[in-house]
Amino acid sequence: MYEKTFPNKRFKHTLEFLNKHISTSQSILDLGVENPFSKIMKAEGFSVKNTSGEDLDIDQSVFSNEKPDVVTAFEIFEHLLNPYTILNEIKSDKLFISIPLRLWFSSAYRSKTDMWDRHYHEFEDWQLDWLLEKTGWRIVAREKFTHPVKKIGFRPLLRYFTNRYYIVYAEKIK
Prior knowledge:
About 30% of the residues lie in helices and about 20% in strands. By secondary structure, it is α/β, with parallel strands linked by helices.
C-alpha cells in the first residue's frame, strides 16, 4: 500500500510544485530511467513514461517518437554535456526541470566509483533561466528550496540556510 511519506524534502516539494501546475490527466515523459520519484508520480495518479537509459547527449530520438503533454527532467540536466540540444528537441508544450544549484562552499559532484554519475553543470538560477529563454521556453513558475541533511559539520549546517535546488515550470513559446 502506498503511503504519502517521502524519503526527503526534495520529493515532497517537487510533487507539490507539479500538482500546482498540471493535472494527472496529462501524459508525462520523464527524462531518465525509472527512479524513486517517477514511482511516486505514478502512485499519485500521473501517467508517466521514462526514457530507457539512452545517452540523450547523442540520441534525442525519444522526442520524435513520443508526444507527451509534459516533459519532466528532475535532476537530469546537470549530468548532460549539451542541455541546449535537448531543450530544442522537446516537442511538448510544458516542461518541468529541477536542478541542484551551484554552491559556493562545495565543488561540483563527481562520483569516484561511477564515471557516469557526475555533474557537468551545476547551474546558478539565472543560467538555467537564460538557457530556457534561448531555446524558446517561457518560465511560468519557479522556486528555490533548501535540502538539509542529518549530519554534523559546517557544510550540513549551511544546507539548512542555503538554497540547494531550483525547480522551474516552463511553457513553449509559440
